[in-house]
Design brief:
single chain; 77 residues; 42% strand; elongated
């Protein structure tokens, strides 16, 4: 469940997906503020060329410790 960060912090999320049949994969990220509003989001697609073989699975990063980032000098659109 998503929990709000403090007012002067943001939360970020990174995800990836593999599409074996289409021989491509994507990486997605987003950052949200304390109200749940998106600050930035991006998806990048990669096409796999050649004879590479996909091996699908799930990976977790147990050593990864999320850290809060303070908002400062963020340009407005």
């Amino acid at each position: 469940m998503w929990r709000k960060p403090a007012l002067d912090e943001v939360k970020y999320d990174v995800d990836a997906a593999i599409f074996k049949d289409n021989r491509c994969y994507s990486i997605r990220m987003c950052m949200r503020d304390a109200h749940g509003e998106y600050i930035v989001a991006k998806t990048v697609w990669f096409q796999v060329a050649g004879a590479h073989t996909f091996k699908c699975g799930e990976v977790e990063c147990p050593g990864f410790q999320p850290r809060p980032y303070k908002l400062c000098n963020v340009p407005a659109n």
